[in-house]
Amino acid sequence: MEHLREIVPGLDGVVHHSLRHFYATTAIRSGVDIRTLKLYLGHESVTTTSRYVHPDAEMLEEAARRTNAYLRKMLEDA
To answer: Cα 23 to the chain's mean position, in Å?
Structure first.
């Protein structure tokens, strides 16, 4: 972490655990499945991994949009 602080300004007070939370949230936001993320982070349980992910309003809106689009397609195909 000290090496990272030397090459990236503004990381004072940031600990590696904070970076894991940031990475997990960013990975989910980019479309990585939580089960895959669980394996990558080395967790035994998805429950543990879910504690690292902090969804925001944008993520919730995107989830609703995708779900609605999927449901509309299912109804059209029925």
So the answer is: 7
pLDDT band at 75 (very low <50, low <70, confident <90, very high): very high
Q: What is the pTM of this model?
A: 0.68
Question: CA nearest 40: which of 26, 24, 19?
Answer: 24
Contact 1, 15 (CB under 8 A): yes
DSSP string for 45-67: -HHHHHTT----HHHHHHHHHHH
Q: 52 with 24: CB under 8 angstroms?
A: yes
Q: What is the pLDDT of residues 32-52, one digit of tens each?
A: 999 999 999 999 999 999 999
Comparing C-alpha atoms, which of 48, 57, 53 is closest to residue 28?
53
Alpha-carbon distance of 64 to 5, in angstroms, equals 38
